[in-house]
Amino acid sequence: MVMQLKLLALTLLLWLRVEGALGDPQISLLNKGCSQYNATNLSNFYENLNATLDNLIAQVRKQRKHFAMAQEARGADPVYGMFQCRNYLSTADCAACFAAAAAQVRNCSTGANGARVIYDGCFLRYESYGFFEQTTMPGDSIICGNEKAAEANGFNATAQQVLKDLQIATPKITGYYAATKTKVAGGAIYAIAQCAETVSESGCLECLTVGYKNINLCLPNKNGIAFDAGCFMRYSETAFFADKQTIDITPLKKGGSSKKGVIIGGVVGGVGLVVILLALFALLRRYKKPKKAPRGDILGATELKGPETYRYKGLKSATKNFSDENKLGEGGFGDVYKGTLKNGKVVAVKKLILGHSRKIDEQFESEVKLISNVHHKNLVRLLGCCINGQERILVYEYMANNSLDRFLFGQKKGSLNWKQRYDIILGTAKGLAYLHEDFHICIIHRDIKTSNILLDEDMQPKIADFGLARLLPEDQTHLSTRFAGTLGYTAPEYAINGQLSEKADTYSFGVVVLEIISGQKSNEFRADAEGEFLLQRAWKLYEENMLLELVDETLDPEDYDAEEVEKITEIALLCTQASAAARPTMSELVLLLKNKNSLGQMRPSMPVLVQSNFRTKVETSTSTGSSISNATATVSMLSAR
Ligand SMILES: *[C@@H]1O[C@H](CO)[C@@H](O)[C@H](O)[C@H]1NC(C)=O
Ligand SMILES: *[C@@H]1O[C@H](CO)[C@@H](O)[C@H](O)[C@H]1NC(C)=O
Ligand SMILES: *[C@@H]1O[C@H](CO)[C@@H](O)[C@H](O)[C@H]1NC(C)=O
Ligand SMILES: *[C@@H]1O[C@H](CO)[C@@H](O)[C@H](O)[C@H]1NC(C)=O
What we know:
alpha+beta; Killer Toxin P4, Chain A; Phosphorylase Kinase, domain 1; six-stranded mixed sheet; five-stranded antiparallel sheet; about 40% helix; about 15% strand; elongated; binds 2-acetamido-2-deoxy-beta-D-glucopyranose
C-alpha cells in the first residue's frame, strides 16, 4: 500500500515538474524604477538587501508561494521587500521571473535604497520603509497594445464588462486574484486582476478602481495592462494563461456582502493536482513518523501589522483617567499623556482636538494608517488609534526624555553638550528629509519647533506630530494651518499668504537650529540683546562677522569647534532666507551638515521679508514679549476650534 502510494505521488510530482519547466516566466519588462536616494551604510544595506531577497525566493521555491514579503531591519538601512507573481505561473516560472526581477533591482546604481520592477509575470519591490499596505502611487501605469481588435465595438463592450466584474470580484476573493476567459465574436478575452495580499479588501478595490479606469483607455485595442503599487490588471485577445486556469467569478460580480474564498480551491488548474499530491504526502507521513510542530512563519508578523485599534477603556486606565499627573505636554493638536498598557508597555497617548468635520470623520482611519506606515529612526512611531464617539485618540511610542525645549529653555537648560546638539540637528534634518522626499507621499510637517522634537533614551531626536495637519478640513487648511504653525517658526510666505511647500519646514528647521545653538527662544526678546528676536539677532551678528556671539553661554568653548558651530549657524541662516526657492531642501541640508568642509560658495542672503514680517507683527501688537505670547495663545485657540 505504502509503496503504491509512493509511486503514484512520484509520478504526479514528475508530471508537475515537467509542466513547470515547460512554462514561460513572462518576463517582458513593463516598468522599472530606482530610488534616487542612497543607503547610508552600504555594507549594512547590502546585507539587509541580500537577506531580504534570499528570504523572498526561499518562500517562492520552498513554500511555493505566489506572494511573499520579507524584511531585514538590522542597522541604519532597513530593507523591506515584496514579491508577487501571477497565480497562473508554475513555481518554476515564478522563480525564474523572480531571478530576472532580482537582477533588475540589483542593477540600480550602487546603494539605491529602493527599487521596483514589473513584468507581465511578476513584480518585485524593495524600499527602506514598510510599503506593504500601499495601493496606489503617482506615475504612468498603463501599457496598451497598438493593434485594434477586429470587432472593435463588440470587443470594447465585453472587455469593459469583464474588467468591471474583475474589479468588483477580486477584492472579495481570498488571495485577491481572479482570471477569466470570455468569448467574443471571433475569439475570446483573457483577463486577470490581482492585488498584493497585504492590502485590505477596500485597498484592493480602491487600487483596482483606478486600474479599471486606466486600462479602459487601452480599449478597443487587443491588449492592455494597468499596474500600480498594490494591484495589477491585464486583458488580451491572446491567451496568456491556460483555459483550465480560470476562476468563476459570477457569484461575486455584484457589490454586496463579501464572500471570500467561496469559489477558491480546485478551480485553478493544477491546484486540484497539488491537493491530491499533498493529501498523498500527508498520508505517507502518517506511516512514517509523528508530525512535527509546524514551523512558524519566518516573518515577524507583529512588525507588519497595520495600526492597532485601542479600546477607550484600556487607554483611560493606562493614563489614570487622563490625569494631570500623567500629562506629558500640551501640543497644538491636543494634550499628551503617559500611559502604561496592561501588558506593561509604556506609550504616549494623544487626545486630539481637531474639531469635528466630515474630512476627519471620513479620513481619520486612512490617515492613521498612512502615518503609522511612516517608519524612520528620527520620526516618532504611531502605534495606533482609538475612536470613542466624537473623540479621536492617537497612541505613540513613548520617548523617555520628553521634548527638546526642556533641554534648551526648561528644567534641563544648559545640560546639552555640543555633540548632543549636533546629533539632534542632524537627526531632525534626516527625519524631515524622509518625510519630504523618501516616504511615498510628501508629508509637510508645518509645525516644526523644539517642543515637537522628542528625545529618546540615547538623546536621539524623533519628530512628533507629523501628518496631523493633513486632517485639518480642506477649506480651512489655508487659515488653520497658518496657525497650525507656531509664531516665530513660521515661514513668511506661509504665515502671510498661506503658500505651503516643503520649504516652510526648511525655514522652521533653520529657526530650531538657531535655538539649539543659542539657547534663546525664537519668539522671545532678550533684554541683554537690545530687544531683538533671535532671527534678527542672528542675521545682524552674521553681517558683523560675529556669529560666535550667538552661541549659548552654557556651552563650554573647549567643547566645540568654533568653525563648525559657525558653519552650522550659517546653514541655519540659509534655511531662513526670504525666498523659499533659495532655501536648501532637507536632503541637501543633511549633506551640508555631514560635510566637514566649509559652505564654499553658498552665502545666505538677508531675509528682507522676515524682518518686515516681524516688524509688522511687532508694530501691530505692542512690542513686548508678553504680547507676542498672547498672540501665540490666540493662535492656538483658533487652531483648536
Ligand atoms: C555599517 O554596517 C556594518 C554592518 O552592519 C557595521 O559593522 C558598521 O559598523 C556600520 N558602519 C557605520 C559607520 O555605522
Ligand atoms: C550581496 O549579494 C551580491 C550578489 O549575490 C554579492 O555580490 C554581494 O557580495 C552580497 N553582499 C553582501 C554584503 O552580502
Ligand atoms: C543593467 O544596466 C545596464 C545599463 O544601465 C544594462 O546595459 C544592462 O542590460 C542591465 N542589466 C540587466 C540585467 O537588466
Ligand atoms: C547615490 O549614489 C550614486 C552613485 O552610486 C550617485 O550617482 C548619486 O548622486 C547618489 N545620490 C544621492 C542622492 O546622493
